[in-house]
Amino acid sequence: MDFSFTDEQSMLRDTVASYLADNYAFDARRAAIRSDAGWRPEVWKAFAEELGILGAPFSEELGGLGGGPVENMVVMEEFGKALVVEPYMGTVVIGGGFLKHSGHAAAPDLIEKIIGGEAIFAFAYAEPQARYTWQDLKTTAVKDGTGYVINGQKAVVVGAPWATHLIVTARTGGGQRDAQGVSVFLVDKNAKGVTTRDYPTVDGQRASEVTFENVSVGVEALIGAEGHGLPLVEKVMDEAIAATCAEACGVLRRLQEGTVEYTRTRKQFGVPISSFQVLQHRMVDMFIQLEQSISMTYMATIRLSDEAHARAQAISAAKVQIGKACRFVGQNAVQLHGGMAITDEMAIGHYFKRATMIEGVFGSTDHHLARYEALSFGKAA
């Protein structure tokens, strides 16, 4: 496999890295997540108008830069290094993914708004009883004339406080956990019957509990075929997991590099603790975990274009490695820094929090190990 980047992809990385270095310092981020809004709309506007990166994974026909999953990977890795909280994942990766893969009639117009920074999406899929099973749904969408009426509750909808649109999974048929009967809908967040309870997450994001009470939507709100939405959900979620793995690589790099830098300045017995062989071995192990994670992420991203079975295998393999690395690198970074690592004033603690959350997002290490086993050997996950 060729893991080298094109000139355009390298330029994209340099552009994002340069902007974040100048405009997304740790103290500025810390102030933003403590504010009432929880983010900086001016940064999102800059992503759209100055950098143009919100169009990175969309075709030129849709007004984008002609990229795809690799461009998402490049952007998300740089976002991980700066702990960016703006909703690129929910809007561009997930929202844009549903629109471009489904062939939805409104996709060109909505993607144009995404690229321009006008439309912000959040994916309302998780339910309290479901854990990591996409099709375990109590939320229902019942036909009513020419449209549907949605009722149900969604948990931990990341980015919902800032969203203009929600992408919602609901059951239009079958039993609660059946693969058939899953449908996907596009819902205006301000629609009558949609209520949210917003809150901050431990890693500096914002999320909502979203309740749908007799929310009426037209037939045009349906994304994909009625009752056959699960393959589309799985495809988009695999792309989201690959992008999350890329973000994790950026987070892990900062944890590893920050730890090495700290041990060079922290002294014990008159010498830097980086000279202690036991600590050198531990930091080498951290570096190995980082490099393995990068390699697995590249491989998974490239294989997103494979058929569903091979794609899912590659994604779960990468997520297992990312989960293990987040735990190992994060915990050792804290141990080598000491107790001050988990104070709010130290950047390393914020990276540790994000790494800890990534370990479980879109499926824990155990879940993806079971999924990989099921895909490889045919056993029930």
Poorly predicted regions are none
Q: What's the story with the biggest beta sheet?
A: 4 strands, mixed
CATH architectural designation of the largest domain: Up-down Bundle
Cα Rg: 21 Å
Strand content: 15-25%
Helix content: 40-55%
Total count of domains: 3
| Mean pLDDT score | 94
- Output the structural class: alpha+beta
The ordered string of helix (H) and strand (E) elements is HHHHHHEEEEEEEEHEEHHHH
Name of the CATH superfamily of the largest domain: Butyryl-CoA Dehydrogenase, subunit A, domain 3
SSE inventory with pairings:
Elements: H1 7-23, H2 26-34, H3 41-51, H4 69-82, H5 88-102, H6 107-115, E1 121-124, E2 140-144, E3 147-158, E4 165-171, E5 182-188, E6 194-200, E7 206-218, E8 222-223, H7 230-265, E9 267-268, E10 271-272, H8 277-302, H9 308-337, H10 347-360, H11 365-377
Parallel strand pairs: 1-4
Antiparallel strand pairs: 2-3, 3-7, 4-5, 5-8, 6-7, 9-10
Helix pairs in contact: 1-4, 4-7, 5-6, 5-7, 7-8, 7-9, 7-10, 8-9, 9-10, 9-11
